[in-house]
From TrEMBL:
GO terms for molecular function: glutaminase activity; pyridoxal 5'-phosphate synthase (glutamine hydrolysing) activity. Its EC number is 4.3.3.6, 3.5.1.2. This is Pyridoxal 5'-phosphate synthase subunit PdxT. Catalyzes the hydrolysis of glutamine to glutamate and ammonia as part of the biosynthesis of pyridoxal 5'-phosphate. The resulting ammonia molecule is channeled to the active site of PdxS. The active site is at C79 (nucleophile), H170 (charge relay system), E172 (charge relay system). Transmembrane segments: none annotated. It comes from the Bacteria. Pathway: Cofactor biosynthesis; pyridoxal 5'-phosphate biosynthesis. Keywords: Glutamine amidotransferase, Hydrolase, Lyase, Pyridoxal phosphate. It catalyses: aldehydo-D-ribose 5-phosphate + D-glyceraldehyde 3-phosphate + L-glutamine = pyridoxal 5'-phosphate + L-glutamate + phosphate + 3 H2O + H(+); L-glutamine + H2O = L-glutamate + NH4(+). It comes from Alkalihalophilus lindianensis. The keyword Hydrolase applies. The gene is pdxT.
Length: 198
């Protein structure tokens, strides 16, 4: 049994909870800092990254979230969650949680393509993973330890760096739960290996 939290300050929280639900997973809706200590892994949902950051600051979540990630516990960010995880954001002086060595561009598909769906090949997840893009960011550059796990039209839309996983789309808005199952496997593996051996 693993305990996976969904940060519930803003955004598509309920959808992630539904996707994570499985006999070997206890899903926890995280509204308080104290709840982080009981988790084996954490999901940062999509929504709006500047709003989410404001709420993270308001409820003093920034340092506890960084400490959670630094302890080696897996983190999975979708869309705005991916933006929170990037070290660099185009046009901004600094990242938010700055967990993954990558540069992201917000709202990178422009107005014409505010939202759309596609079936994507995602390494170790599937070759027809349903992806919903909504005012989605793109990963413009990755550092050497970052594995690119999916591309759409030659642009990077999902990546993994050790125990951190991020995608620019919303797997939680589909009935395809494979991306979440993949993250749960990462969480179970990390729990088995222990948090300090990162
Ligand atoms: N465009 C949003 C942002 O910059 C992200 C959109 C989403 O999470 N669907 O935060």
């Amino acid at each position: 049994m693993v305990k996976v939290g969904v940060l519930a300050l803003q955004g598509a929280v309920r959808e992630h909870v539904t996707c994570l639900q499985a006999p070997d997973v206890e899903v926890i809706v995280v509204k308080k800092i104290e709840q982080l200590s009981e988790l084996d892994g954490l999901v940062l949902p999509g929504g709006e990254s500047t709003t989410m950051r404001r709420l993270i600051d308001k409820y003093e979540f920034l340092e506890p979230l960084k400490a959670f990630a630094a302890s080696g516990k897996p983190v999975f960010g979708t869309c705005a969650g991916l933006i929170l995880m990037a070290k660099d954001i185009v046009g901004q002086n600094e990242g938010h949680l700055s967990l993954m060595n990558m540069t992201v561009e917000r709202n990178a598909f422009g107005r014409q393509r505010e939202s759309f769906e596609a079936d994507l090949m995602v390494t170790d997840v599937g070759d027809d993973v349903r992806a919903v893009f909504i005012r989605a960011p793109l990963i413009k550059e990755v550092g050497e330890n970052v594995e690119i796990i999916s591309k759409f039209n030659d642009e990077i839309v999902a990546a993994r760096e050790g125990r951190f996983l991020a995608c620019s789309f919303h797997p939680e808005l589909t009935d395809d739960h494979r991306f979440h199952q993949y993250f749960v496997k990462m969480v179970a593996q990390a729990k088995l290996e222990g948090v300090k051996s990162v």
